[in-house]
Design a protein that fits this description.
Elements lengths: L21 H10 L14 E2 L11 H8 L9 H14 L3 E5 L2 H12 L5 E4 L4 H9 L3 E4 L20 H10 L8 E4 L12 H14 L3 E4 L3 H11 L8 H10 L3 E5 L10 E5 L2 H14 L10 H14 L2 H20 L12 E5 H4 L9 H13 L1 E2 L1 E3 L1 H4 L15 E5 L7 H16 L8 E5 L10 E4 L2
Parallel strand pairs: 1-10, 3-4, 5-6, 6-7
Antiparallel strand pairs: 2-8, 7-8, 9-12, 11-12, 13-14
Helix pairs in contact: 1-14, 2-11, 3-11, 4-5, 4-10, 6-7, 8-9, 12-16, 14-16
The structure holds ligand F0G.
Amino acid sequence: MNLPYCEPHKIKTVESLKRSTVSERREWIREASYNLFNLRSEQVFVDLLTDSGTGAMSDRQWAAIMTGDESYAGASSYYTLKEAIRDITGFEYFLPTHQGRAAENVLFSVLVKEGDIVPGNAHFDTTKGHIEFRKAVAVDCTVETARDIFADDPFKGNVDLGRLEKVLKETPREKLGCIVMTVTNNTAGGQPVSMANLRGVRELADRYGATVIIDSARFAENAYFIKTREEGYSEKSIRDIAREMFSYSDVMTMSSKKDAIVNIGGFIGFRDKELFRRASTYNIMFEGFITYGGMAGRDMNALATGLYEGTDCEYLESRIRQVARLGEKIASAGVPVQQPFGGHAIFIDAGRFLPHIPAGEFPAQRLAVEFYLEGGIRSAEIGTLMADRDPVTRENRHPELELVRLAVPRRVYTDNHMDYVAAAVGNVFERRDRITRGLAIKWEAPIMRHFTIELELLH
Ligand code: F0G
């Protein structure tokens, strides 16, 4: 008999979960105004709201915490991290920041100005926010297949090179901010970007004189997909693949809370000393001195160790397999999910799940509420609520897909938890015809409304 697959780690510390009843959850979600961000974490049984900052650190990371150097300037932890970043990414210069969006804020203070055009494969919300805040325009040039959840494309995270070239051609050089490639592509469903696509972006950037930024939050998961799906990479190591990915960019921003498996932290990697120097001034203003930039020394130590653990192929295999296991179980119940499965999350198509609920009643949010009621599972709406209103017309923007994201934290839950989640999703699918109405807005903030919105249930 072939031995079954099992994880390359064992559990040293456990945290208890609180079970609750459906009637308790009905009360709690009503008190939370049907906004899952408003729930207390003890009211949640399996928390799949995000994979960001929610991972379990290893014994080695915790040991590294104890040897953190908390000196204001020139801490040894800074140099340990600098060495790890150079080794894993190939970037010579770096600035630490407190998380990914802080890295965007510092970098875009130098690279993006009013009226600039910033194309990419699909900017993450905070990236778009930092671009639009500077009165520049973020242009998503996502490949067409990303819009079709059943399209068979191993690299649905790619940028459409034809569309990108059109934008580059039509933009005067002085208005060309930079190109942002997000790996993996979170907005398109945690879908990977191929090496060939990154190479193509580099060629176009060289031709049109643009700077290429890699938003690297899930770069290791992306490298794993290149290794397992792209011709010519199966024998290469994850770190060699990652270094090649970064070799096609000029700068990287990193939310370390994802693939570097720490609870807080970020950084910017630079090849060009002059750009690094210019950004350093903003880092000192917004984040902290350039050798700690918003991170404690102990956190830089844990991050340096996490960069190695997060690029370990055996770890990545167990990580991607667990997400796929969840996806397979959910899909086999007949539930419409984005395929191939993403690296960090399973995306459920709420538009197809609850086709009788109009987009104006927020079907994806209603579905997320139902998953909570059914099993205490917290997920995230990626649909009309998150898409927010058009800044000019104030009408709701309706994205092509109404999605619910089940994001899996790293090294936190067991496969039994995944089976539990799949069973709960399956139960909701079986009773979907009885979910006849969606939700209505009671109160909303003028921007980024989904975080604080208050809703009521329609019957
Ligand atoms: N870039 C990507 C691709 C992200 O997914 C995120 C965060 C950021 C940048 C910002 O990083 O949170 O450290 O400031 N994504 C989280 C998520 C919040 O749930 O997908 P941050």
